[in-house]
Amino acid sequence: MTALHEETQGGGRGLVAGQVAIVTGAAQGIGLAIADAFLAEGASVLLADVDQAKVDAVVAERVGRGLPAAGLLCDVTSEGDQEALVATAQETFGRLDVLVNNAGITKDRYLGKMSVTDFEAVIDVSLKGAWLGTRAVSGLFREQKSGAIINMSSLSGKIGNPGQTNYSAAKAGLIGLTKAAAKELGPSGVRVNAIQPGLVSTEMTLSMKPEIFAAKEAEVPLGRAGRADEVAAAALFLASPLASYVNGAVLEVTGGRGI
C-alpha cells in the first residue's frame, strides 16, 4: 500500500477526497475495482448492482474495514431505480459528485442466430441504462455546477467484434451519448467522459474459450491482457481534479490494441 493510500484509508487526503460517487455494476470486475480505487483515494461510494447478494457481501467487507461504502439493488434499465440511486447517495453521504455508468451485459451470437430479445437486452443495460443514469444526475449536477460522469464503453465499440453486434452497437452508442451530454452539461461545469477498455482479465472475459482469449491477447502491443485496477485508475483520473479540463473525451485503456 502506498503512502497516499495509507493516508486515504481514513478518509483524509486523496485524489477524490470528500467526494461521493455512484458506481453501477459494482459487485464484481471493473465496477468493483473502480469503487475500490475511489475508496482508497478518499471518496464515499454507493455500489449499485442487480445482484443483491454480491453487492451486500462486498459492501459488508469494506464497511468492516471502516470504509465509507454503501450498497443498493439497482436495475439500471429502471427509471425509478436510477432516481433512487441519486436520492440514496444524497441521503447516505450528504452529496453526490461522480457517476460511473459501468453496468453492462453480453449476449453474444452471430447475426443470424441473435434474437431480438438478446439484442434489446444488451442495448437496454449498457446504453439505455447509462442514459437513464446520466439523466437522473443531470439536474442535480447542473444545479450544483459541478459533477463528473464516466461512461464505460469498450474497444468493441470502436473496432467491432464478430458475434457482438448488440454489444458493439451499445458501446459505440455510449460514445455518442458521452459527447452529446458533454456539450449539454459542460456549460454548467459538469464533465462527461468515456473509457474504452480493451481485453481485461475479468470473470466475463475469462469465460471465453482459452484459444479465443489467447488470440485477442496476441493483438495487444504490450503483450498482455489488462487488469481491472488499470481501468479503475483511468476512472479515478477522470473523476479527479487532475481532469478538470477533460470533457467529452474517450480514453482508451487497451495496451495499444485497436490503434
Topology:
Blueprint: H1 3-8, E1 20-24, H2 29-40, E2 44-49, H3 52-64, E3 69-73, H4 79-93, E4 98-101, H5 116-144, E5 147-152, H6 156-159, H7 165-185, E6 190-197, H8 210-217, H9 228-239, E7 250-253
Parallel strand pairs: 1-2, 1-4, 2-3, 4-5, 5-6, 6-7
Helix pairs in contact: 2-9, 4-5, 5-7
Short description:
By secondary structure, this protein is α/β, with parallel strands linked by helices. The chain has helices at residues 3-8, 29-40, 52-64, 79-93, 116-144, 156-159, 165-185, 210-217, 228-239, and strands spanning 20-24, 44-49, 69-73, 98-101, 147-152, 190-197, 250-253. The chain has a seven-stranded parallel beta sheet, sandwiched between helices.
Description:
Helices cover 46% and strands 15% of the residues. The model is unreliable at 1-11 (pLDDT under 50). By secondary structure, the protein is of the alpha/beta class. The chain has one domain (3-253): NAD(P)-binding Rossmann-like Domain (Rossmann fold), CATH 3.40.50.720.
SSE pattern: HEHEHEHEHEHHEHHE
Please give the CATH class: Alpha Beta
Low-confidence stretches: 1-11
Mean pLDDT: 94
How many structural domains are formed by the residues? 1
| Global Rg | 17 Å
Strand order of the largest sheet: 3-2-1-4-5-6-7
Q: How is the quaternary structure best described?
A: single chain
CATH fold-type name: Rossmann fold
The count of strands amounts to 7
- Looking at this structure, what is the CATH superfamily? NAD(P)-binding Rossmann-like Domain
How helix-rich are the residues, as a percent range?
40-55%
